[in-house]
Amino acid sequence: MSMNSQGRPSAIPALASTNAVTGTITGNRGLQIEEPLIFEQDAPGRCGVDLPEIPPVATRLGAVKPRASVGLPGLAEPQVVRHYTRLSQKNYAIDSGLYPLGSCTMKHNPRLNEKMARLPGFADVHPLQPISTVQGALELMDALAHWLKTLTGMAAVTLAPAAGAHGEMCGIMAIRAAHEAKGDSARTKILVPESAHGTNPATAAACGYAVESIPATADGRVDLDALKAKLGPDVAGLMLTNPNTCGLFERDIIAIADAVHAAGGYFYCDGANFNAIVGRVRPADLGVDVMHINLHKTFSTPHGGGGPGSGPVVFSEALAPYVPVPYVTHGANGFALVEEAGDGPAFGRMKAFHGQMGMFTRALSYMLSHGADGLWQASGDAVLNANYVMAKLEDVMTASFDGPCMHECLFDDRFLKGTGVTTLDIAKALIDEGFHPMTMYFPLVVHGALLIEPTETESKASLDQFIGALRALAERAKGGDVAYFQAAPRLTPRRRLDETAAARKPILRWTPPAGADAVAAE
Amino acid sequence: MRYLPLTEADRQSMLAATRAASVNDLFRDVPEAARLSGPIGGLPNHMGELEVERLMGAMAAKNIAAGSVPSFLGAGAYRHHVPATVDHMVQRGEFLTAYTPYQPEVSQGTLQVLFEFQTQVSLLTGMDVANASMYDGATACAEAVIMANRVTRRKKALLSGGLHPHYRDTTTTDARFIGFDAVAFPADPTGVEDLAAQIDDKTSCVVVQNPSVFGHVRDYSELAKVCQAKGALLIVVVTEALSLGLLTPPGDMGADIVAAEGQSFGNALNFGGPYVGLFAVKDKYVRQMPGRLCGETVDADGRRGFVLTLSTREQHIRREKATSNICTNAGLCALAFSIHVSLLGEAGITHLAQLNHAKAVQMADKLAAVPGVEVVNDSFFNEFTVKLPKPAAGVVEALAARRILGGVPVSRLYPGEMDDLLLAAVTETNTESDMDAFATALAEVLS
Lengths: 522, 447
Prior knowledge:
- Chain B: The glycine cleavage system is composed of four proteins: P, T, L and H. In this organism, the P 'protein' is a heterodimer of two subunits.
- The structure holds two protein chains of two kinds.
- Chain A has helices at about 75-90, 110-115, 120-125, 135-150, 165-180, 200-205, 225-230, 255-260, 355-395, 425-430, 460-480, 480-485, 500-505, 515-520, and strands spanning about 155-160, 190-195, 210-215, 235-240, 265-270, 290, 315, 325-330, 335-340, 400, 410, 440, 450.
- By secondary structure, chain A is an alpha/beta fold.
- Among the domains of chain A are: about 115-370, Aspartate Aminotransferase, domain 2 (3-Layer(aba) Sandwich); about 410-505, Aspartate Aminotransferase, domain 1, CATH 3.90.1150.10.
- Chain A is globular and about 90 Å long.
- The two termini of chain A are about 35 Å apart.
- By secondary structure, chain B is α/β, with parallel strands linked by helices.
- The interface between A and B is large, with 210 and 213 residues.
C-alpha cells in the first residue's frame, strides 16, 4: 500500500467483500448502522435483568401446566440499549426537523409535559385505588375538563375515549342514544362531506348508519344547497371537519348547523383541526353539538410513532345527558368518580378505567404553559405559517383553492402535469433534502393532493429552507428530470420499499430459520 | 411564550408575503359573530416551567403513589418494576416525536420495533400472528368480538362471568350501538362456570378470561373443541400479560383470538392509561383483523425492510367498508412493552412469572391465616379473591388510612354485589415486609 508523508494510506484499496449497496464492508454507512432483528441476537440463558430468588413454594396453577418455553431471545442490557438506539436513528421525528404532515399536526412536544406525566403522584397511581387516595388525579381531570369546556364553549365533556377515532365513535353513539331516547328510529343516515377523513364514514358505518356523501363546491367547501337537499327525517346528523381537510374554514358553518338542527339532526364536528382556531373561536358559537378533540394534535401530546392518542369529546346542552361513564364530579367531600351508567341516559363504558391519564397530564401541562394568551398566539402563528408557505409556493406549485387557508395549505398535482413526476416522487425527493414529506393523496377531493401543515412551532428560517427545497424540486420536475425523482430517496437507511410484495404474501413476524438450533449453538 | 419561534419582525414580513393586513385578517372566513376579539376569558395567561411544575406538583402530591406504600391492587392493572432502560429508550425523541410510519424510508426504526413487537406478542400468546397493538385490553376484547361476528356471520357473543366487568361493559356498549347480542353471564367468583352447553348455532364467540378477573386459572382446551365443533370462535382475554410467561398459552389451548392488556410490561400504572392492547389470531383470520399490521419486504436495493401492510382493511382506504374505524395503535406503549420483554428475554420472563406466582402463594397463605379471612381460589397466578367477614370497601378505606393499598373491593367492579370479596394482587415489587404489613393491618382492621 502506498503511503503519504504522514504515513496515511494515499489510496483506499478496494476490498472484494464490500457491500454492493453501501460500498462498505459492514453494510453500515457512517452513522447509519445496520441492525438485525432482536431475535437474531439471541444467546440462550443471557438476560438483561437481575431478579431475586424465587421462594420455594408449591405452585397453585390448578389444571393448567407451566409452559415449556416462550421462544424469546436472550440479550444483555447493553445490547438492548444499542438495539433500540440504532433503531431510533432510523426514524425521522419532529425533534429532528420540519414534519409538515397535513391534518396530523406535528408540532413541538415540550419535555416539561413528559416530566409532569412521570411525577409518581400521577404515573404511579393505580386506577382502582380508594377515591380518597386519588383526589389529585381527579382534580387534574376536572381541571382539564374545565379547560376543554371553556375553550369550546360546550356544556359537557368526556375524557374517556382513547384516540380521535374512538372519540368519533363516542360522539356518534351519543347522537344515536339521543334519537333513541326520543323514540326516533327513522334516522338511518349520517351525512359526511367527500373531503372527510376516512375515520368519519368508518365510524358512522360502524354505528349502523348509512353514509351519504356531500359534494364540495368549487371553492373547497360544503355545498350548502346539496346538503339541504339531503336533509330530512331520515338523517341522524352531519359529520363535518372544520376547518376542513382542505385547510379551509367552512364559511357557511352557522347556516349548515341551523339547517341540520331544523331537520332534527345533530351536528358532529370532527375536531382534528381544532388547533387552527383554539383560543380564538369557540365551536359552541358555530352550532356544534358534539366534537372530539385530539389531545395529541391541538395540545401537543407526543404522537409516539402511532399512539397513544387521547380523544376527549365535548357535548352541547342537548347531548350532555348522554355523556358516557366514567366522569368526575365534585361536592363537599372533594372529587368523586361516577363509574356506572345505571338507569340514566348516560351510556358506557368505552374502555377500561378512566381514560388516557398520561395524556391528560401532558395536555394540561401544555395548556397551563401557553395560557389563554399563548393559545391565541399559537393558533395565529399556525395559520400565519401555513399562509406564508402557500404564498411562497403558489407561483411554482398549484394551490387547489384560494386563500386565506387556515393551519394547512393544499396543493394538487396540476403543476406536475406532463412532467412524468408524481406527488409521491416529490415526497420522496423531499426526504433526501432532510424533510419529512407532507400528507400525500389526501384529501381525495383534489388530484394528487399535497397537504402541508407547518404548525406554529416552526421558525421562519426553517420554513424558508423548506420552501426553497420545494421550489427547487418543483422547478426540477418541470425541467423533466424524471429519473432523479423516481430514484429518490437515495440517502435513507432504506430506499423505496416494495409494498405490493408485502401485502401479497404477508410476513408479519419473525420465524426461526431452518436449522436455527445449530446457529444458536455457535 | 417559549414554544413559539416567530418574532414580531418575522410576523410582519410574513404577513406582507401573504398580502393580509393582520393575523386576524387571515381568520376572515370565520363568521364575525363567532370570532373572539382577544384571548379567551376565564383561563389564566401563560406560565413558566417553574409555575407549571408547582401547580401540577401540588395536584400530584394529593395522591398516594402506589410505590410509596405497600400496594396490592390488580384487577387489570399491575404494578411491576420497569427497568430504567425502558423509559430512557422510550424518551428518545426519534421514537417519542415521530408520527405513524406511513413513510417507511424514514420510519424503519418504528417499523422494525412493530415487527418485533408482533413477533413477541405471537410468541407470548402462542398464536400465529399479532397486530401492532390496540388502545387497551378492553377495546381489544370488544374488537375481537366484532371480528368474530364478521368471521362467523353470527351475532351472539357469550361473555364469561370471569371477564373483567370493564371489558364486558366496553363490549356491551359496542353491542348496543353496532347491533349485536352480547350475553353477559353472572359473575363467577369461584371459577366453576361452564359455558359449553350455552353455545348454539347463533353463537359467534365465547369470551373467557384467563386468569379470570377473580384470579382463577383454567384450561380452556375442551371449550375450544366445543367452540370449533359448533362453528363459534374462542376468544381468550388476558389482563395480566406476565401470566403468559408461566401458563400454557391461549394458542396452545386452541384460542382463535387472544385479546390482552400488555401494561404489565414496560408501562406504568398511569391511573389507568395509556396502556397497550394486544391482539393475536390464527393465521387464517389475518385479513379479518382490526388495527395496524407491519410486514417484512425488500427495498429498491433488495435489502430487508418493513412497511405497514394489508391496509386495504383500514379506514383510510376502505372508508365506510373498513373492518374497524381504528386509526391508531398504542405505538409508544407497545415500544415500552417490547423493550421490557427484550430485556427479560426467555430466562427473565419465565423467572419473573414464577417469582410473581410464588409471592402470591405466600401472600395467600398469610391472608388465610388472618382470622375470619378465607382465600376463595384453588388456583391463581399472581392475584386471588379473599372473602372477608366485613364489607371489603370499608376495609380497603381503613387500610388506606394506615397507608396500605390493600387490593380492590369486588364491589368496585360489581356495584352492590359480593361486597365481602376482595381482590389481592402480588408482584415482584412487594417485599416480604409489605406482605406482613398487609396481613397484620388486615387482622387489625377486621378485629
